[in-house]
Amino acid sequence: MNQFIKNQPVVALLLLIAFAVLLFCFVMPALNYWHKLNTVQTSIQVMEDLSLSETILLRLMEFCTGLGVFAIGASIGSYLNVLVYRMPLGLSVFWKPSHCPQCGQTIAGSDNIPILGWMKLHGRCRSCQLPISAQYPIVEAKAGLIILVLFFWQTLSGGWNIPVRIPNSYHGFVWIIFYTKWDLVGLLLLHGFLFYTLLTWWLIEFHQERIPRYSFLSASIFVLLTLSIWQKLSPVPSGFSQVIELSRTNPVTGFVSGLLGLGCGGILGWVVQWINRLQDKTSNQSLATHYFTALTGTVLGWQAILIIVLCWIPLGLISNLFQSEDRRRIPPHAIFLILVSLHHLFWRLIYEQVFLKFSV
Ligand SMILES: [Zn+2]
Fold it and tell me: In which region does residue 159 sit, left (phi positive, over 0), alpha (psi from -120 to 50) or beta (all else)?
């Protein structure tokens, strides 16, 4: 019993997970099934006609996969914490056993489990008892959530939010994972990479360190190469391939699409800094803003970064207006990150509203 009280946060977390399993895997399918029994079905839904036990099984599989995806994301988050600490110091970013930043003691494997390890130790180092920053589990949870939302919203939905690409009408766990739709998996990995890189940069800035230039260069070269090899990962046509009549599967198409996004992002980053300097002559002159906008443009295309920055400029101006002397202003790149996330959730709708209305 004593142990039970000692591990309160872990117990609360386990109870929460149990509750979620119950709701998602049993209560919701049962309600759905009951609803179906009481309504006359008009359309033929062959694949949707699962029995209650099949639905429960499917939901359990989805839940376990979700938990697995979250765990993978949280582990990546754990590595991001390492990057945030090591990159500005110029230390190696390759794997090395984690150690306590205060006393240097190597952290045991069982204490190094994302989120749970920190909770188990009540946020203190096992050897020196000094507090370990809550940033560690928070970043791990954020990283887990990012990939979890992408997985359900973008991948299992059959690419609902991806513009131009026709969403898979057969979607869900069986149709996307068992009969793997590889382009959706690729998009999940690429977009996960974008969000994780932006999060890492933002955390480095938050600690008032400088984002290393090599991290931007390597990330953009990696994305450009990926887009050249796998053109389906840039679903929105850049317009360039239509002009010189290149096929959508030509490596040049993917590369140019990324490059146009990179250039557009870079220029927009310059515009944002120019506006900032008009307001505040002392505003920092670092290249960080260019890194954020250029990488986002490379991954999502010039159309996406244009829309995001056009929303970002007025929001930045408003947040500056409300900034008082004593209160710290909202970091502009935090607003950018939120805008990129929101844009991503409704990417298809935004793209159709803005770009398809004006084209023939
Ligand atoms: Zn320590």
Answer: left
Helices (runs of H) and strands (runs of E) counted in the chain:
16, 0
d(CA 317, CA 326): 18
Q: How far is the CA of 88 from the centre of ligand 1 (A)?
A: 21
Distance 89 CA to ligand 1 centre (A): 20
Task: Compute the distance between CA of residue 240 and CA of residue 261 in angstroms, rounded to an integer.
Answer: 12
Q: How far apart are CA 28 and CA 26, in angstroms?
A: 6
Find the 343 Cα to ligand 1 centroid distance in Å: 41
Contact 257, 166 (CB under 8 A): no
Q: How far is the CA of 137 from the centre of ligand 1 (A)?
A: 16
Summarize pLDDT for 235-294 with one digit per residue, the tens.
888 877 667 666 767 778 889 899 999 999 999 999 998 888 877 766 666 788 999 999
The string of pLDDT tens digits covering residues 213-240 is 999 999 999 999 999 999 888 888 887 7
Report DSSP letters for 11-58, one per residue: HHHHHHHHHHHIIIIIIHHHHHHHHHHTS---S--TTT---HHHHHHH
Task: Calculate how far, in angstroms, residue 85's C-alpha sits from the geometric centre of ligand 1.
Answer: 16
DSSP string for 257-299: HHHHHHHHHHHHHHHHHHHHHHH-TTS---SHHHHHHHHHHHH
Phi, psi (deg, nearest 5) at residue 181 = -95, 100
Residue whose C-alpha is closest to residue 59's, from 36, 38, 30, 16: 30
CA of 99 to the centre of ligand 1 (A): 8
**Which residues neighbour 358 within 8 Å (Cβ) at sequence distance 6 or greater?**
none
> Residue ranges of the domains in the chain?
1-32+53-155, 211-323+331-360
Question: Ligand 1 mean position to 122 CA, how many Å?
Answer: 13
- Whether this model's pTM surpasses 0.90: no
